[in-house]
Amino acid sequence: MTALVPPEFLFRYSFPVQHIKGLPRRGKRLLNLTPECTLPSVAELAQKSDYGQIQLAWNDRGIGISVSVDGKTHPPVGDPEKLGQSDGIRVWIDTRCTQTVHRASRFCHQFELLPIGGGEDSMQPVATMWPVARASDDPPQVDSDLLPIQSEFTDDGYRMEAWLPADALHGYDPVEQPRLGFMYALNDSERGLQCLSIGAEFPFASDPSLWCTLDLTESIAAR
Q1: Distance between CA atoms of 124 and 121, rounded to whole angstroms?
Q2: 39 within 8 A of 196, measured Cβ to Cβ
Q3: Fewest Cβ atoms closer than 10 Å to its Cβ: which of 34, 47, 95, 135?
């Protein structure tokens, strides 16, 4: 029997995020995050399993996000001009964590990170900032060149790391505002969407009240 209300919708999720002072790194790896930075999965509540691994870290200069996808039988595809139609991840961040309103404010951001589709040869990773749908106000727009991103391909997937600098996150102030609203939707051309909590049956792309919470703390202990 199909549940009237998805089990993921029954809870509000809050995830601690590890502080790493030395990010972004110099060299081949932009982040090189440790396993302790991996976001937990709530897919088991809906008797599902995740195909991608998402890692996060932060410091006063911004937020790092790492994506690992395995088990693909075809190379990823990317078109940065078509929001949500490529292999990659969309990330929503609210620097004020206002989860009592249903329309995004100027503190709400949407980024799309693709492992492929950028550059003159369309083979480079690309990070793009997009307006949040139905927003009452938009944050200052940030050029893609200011969003560092790296990717590498494996035999059955890809690894991708991106840095969202504080200048790209309007209102970012970890001292005064150590809690962020956060949601992601990982898209795969073979396996569809993997979301942090609720799925596409809910309008999380435009409603920040449906987003989860990130706790920017020095500790990585789970709540």
Answers
A1: 7
A2: yes
A3: 47
Encoding tokens for residue 186? 């990982």
Helices (H) and strands (E) in the chain, counts: 0, 11
> What tokens appear for 99 in the block?
């989860």
Q: What is the pLDDT of residues 118-176, one digit of tens each?
A: 999 999 999 999 999 999 999 999 999 999 999 999 999 999 999 999 999 999 999 99
Let me know: does 106 contact 138? Beta carbons within 8 Å. Answer: yes
Q: Please say whether the beta carbons of 90 and 82 come within 8 A.
A: no
Range 101-120 average pLDDT: 97
pTM, rounded to two decimals: 0.92
pLDDT at residue 9 above 80? no
Rounded to whole angstroms, what are the CA distances from 87 to 67, 71, 99, 110, 177? 11, 13, 28, 16, 32
Distance, in Å, from the CA atom of 25 to the CA atom of 29, rounded to the nearest integer, reads 7
Q: What is the DSSP letter of 132?
A: P
Sequence ranges of the domains in the chain: 17-216
pLDDT(73) > 50: yes
Residue type, 194: Q
Domain 17-216: assigned CATH number: 2.60.40.1190
| The pLDDT of residue 149 | 98
Query: Residues 198, 210: contact at Cβ < 8 Å?
Result: yes
